[in-house]
Specification:
The complex is a heterodimer. Chain A is mostly helical. Chain A has a domain of 83 residues: NADH-ubiquinone/plastoquinone oxidoreductase chain 6, subunit NuoJ (Four Helix Bundle (Hemerythrin (Met), subunit A), Up-down Bundle). Helices cover 78% and strands 0% of the residues of chain A. Chain A contains seven helices and no strands. The model of chain A has no long low-confidence stretch (mean pLDDT 84). In chain B, α1 runs parallel beside α12 and α4 packs antiparallel against α5. Chain B contains 13 helices and no strands. Chain B is mainly alpha-helical. The chains are: A mainly alpha, B mainly alpha. Chains A and B meet through α2 and α3 of A and α3, α4 and α5 of B.
Chain lengths: 170, 354
């Protein structure tokens, strides 16, 4: 009973907060709702016994990426967003697409098959600690995808430096 | 720590869990009480230390040698008028100091004060501390923005950039410790240190310790990296519009932040609550010193670092902003990365030894 209650709390609040993120008129408030959202997602990870991912979720997303977002919002100096009424309402098409998407999702849920249970049961992870179990998998079985992601990130970093340096010269 | 008082196996499961929660609550109350008392007297200690370093007396009027000064200051802050700027974003203005203070207090939960005395003995202790320190940055940035004042806003922006850059250096400097201990649990890190020379990681991890020490000052926004609140340029930086108890929350958060950074340094590099082994080796003195309770050793080491904070504040002038960024990105991060590679290679090649 208690686990279901916890999950229900997280599920409901995550949905609510994501709606608040989109509907907040002030961009800084929107970032703050996002911060709360990230903390609840971390809570959901903890609930799944994935403590390492929960911590990384907060350190990387809340601690680094969201602060950068906040920085950009500050530098753009946006205050309240303007509210202007549209000439043509977009809600009929929005509703149609929304219902269509929902139907697709519901249909795909029906064909959902649970994967066969692997070697890593909850007890094994608890015994080995989640960090160690994740690291072992990441650096043995999934080393190649991991390296590819690193290279992609490196490309992004190099690209940023090239762009910044070019503007500096001219 | 109360295992001997009650015998858990004789009780009903529900009673047992209620008692467990009760014990945790008592522990929390003890730690919060000690932390607030610490903040009160850390300010007194700071003013006295810096006073004597500058050849003056420091607080002397309230009580003998000014010993009641922190209590007088606390009362003053409580009874001050709570001024809120008219154009401030009220909700965020109210929340910001609470976020800052909560982040600092929550970090206390994972710090092992002595063996088995830790509120939450979690496996990701170090990562939890990083997460909370990055949450604390929000308190600063938000207070700067919500005040709607130029000084506060500039202070908040500076602090966001500073905390962001130095958190990377701080995290990387502790990776060496993680590699050597093979764990992120702070109690395990202390235990793992016992097999190394002198029972300290200070010597094999001297590079990491150096980087951590510098990042520690920047992360708490203390001198010589107190740019977010540089008095001569920004009046008081991000909390310039706060008064009364909201200001006190920032104050408490900053001093608890210093305590936490010092505790991380002690736990990761100076062997936590354990007695340094080279002292135990001395025939007569070692026996006497090993009788001293572990908590005293822990606090002695922590207060050494807190003294270091004050010492540096009285000695070193403030850095310029570009110098701060250059130190963080061009020196500390490369050194910390080199430290990780060296530690990893040595651990691979010379298993067992350093």
């Amino acid at each position: 009973m208690l686990p279901e209650l916890f999950f229900a709390y997280f599920a409901v609040t995550i949905v609510l907060f994501s709606i608040f993120v989109v509907t907040a008129r002030n961009p800084v408030h929107s970032v703050l709702w996002m911060l709360l959202l990230f903390f609840h997602i971390a809570g959901l990870y903890l609930f799944l016994n994935a403590e390492f991912i929960a911590a990384i979720q907060i350190i990387i997303y809340a601690g680094a990426i969201l602060v950068l977002y906040l920085f950009v919002v500050f530098l753009l100096n946006l205050r309240e967003e303007l509210k202007i009424y549209r000439f043509i309402g977009g809600w009929p098409s929005g509703l149609t697409f929304g219902i269509a998407l929902l139907a697709v999702i519901i249909l795909s849920i029906r064909s959902f098959i649970a994967a066969p249970p692997g070697k890593y049961s909850i007890n094994l992870i608890r015994e080995e600690t989640h960090t160690k179990a994740l690291a072992k998998l990441l650096y043995t079985d999934y080393l190649f995808p991991f390296e590819i992601i690193s290279v992609i990130l490196l490309v992004a970093i190099v690209g940023v430096i090239v762009l910044a340096k070019r503007r500096l010269k001219t | 720590m109360f295992e001997n008082i009650i015998r858990p196996e004789t009780l009903e499961p529900i009673v047992r869990s209620v008692i467990n929660i009760g014990i945790i609550l008592i522990n929390i109350a003890i730690i919060v009480g000690i932390a607030l008392f610490h903040v009160a007297y850390a300010t007194y200690f700071e003013r006295k230390t810096i006073g004597h370093m500058q050849v003056r007396l420091g607080p002397i009027e309230v009580g003998p040698h000014g010993i009641l000064q922190p209590i007088a200051d606390g009362l003053k802050l409580l009874f001050k008028e709570d001024v809120i700027p008219q154009v401030a974003d009220r909700t965020v203005f109210y929340i910001a100091p609470v976020i800052f203070f909560t982040a600092a207090m929550t970090s206390l939960a994972v710090i092992p004060f002595f063996e088995k005395f830790v509120i939450a003995d979690i496996n990701i202790g170090l990562l939890f501390l990083f997460a909370m320190s990055s949450l604390g940055a929000y308190g600063i940035v938000m207070s700067g923005w919500a005040s709607n004042s130029k000084y506060a806003f500039l202070g908040g922006l500076r602090s966001a950039a500073q905390v962001l850059s130095y958190e990377i250096a701080m995290g990387l400097s502790l990776v060496g410790v993680m590699i050597m201990a093979g764990s992120l649990n702070l109690s395990e890190i202390v235990k793992a240190q016992q097999t190394y020379p002198l029972g300290l990681y200070l010597i094999p991890q001297i590079l990491g310790f150096g980087v951590f020490l510098i990042a520690m000052f920047a992360e708490t926004g203390r001198c010589p990296f107190d740019l977010p609140e540089a008095e001569s340029e920004l009046v008081a930086g991000y909390f310039v519009e706060y008064s009364g108890f909201r200001f006190a929350l920032f104050f408490l958060g900053e001093y608890i932040g210093m305590f936490i950074m010092s505790s991380i340094a002690v736990v990761c590099f100076l062997g936590g609550w354990t007695v340094p082994q080279f002292i135990l080796g001395i025939p007569l003195i070692g026996d006497i010193l090993s009788k001293i309770p572990n908590i005293i050793w822990f606090l002695l080491k922590v207060y050494f670092f807190i003294f270091l904070y004050y010492w540096v504040r009285a000695t070193v002038p403030r850095y310029r902003y570009d110098q701060l960024m250059a130190i963080g990105w061009k020196i500390l991060i490369p050194v910390a990365l080199a430290n990780i590679v060296i530690t990893g290679l040595i651990k691979l090649w010379v298993k067992g030894m350093i």
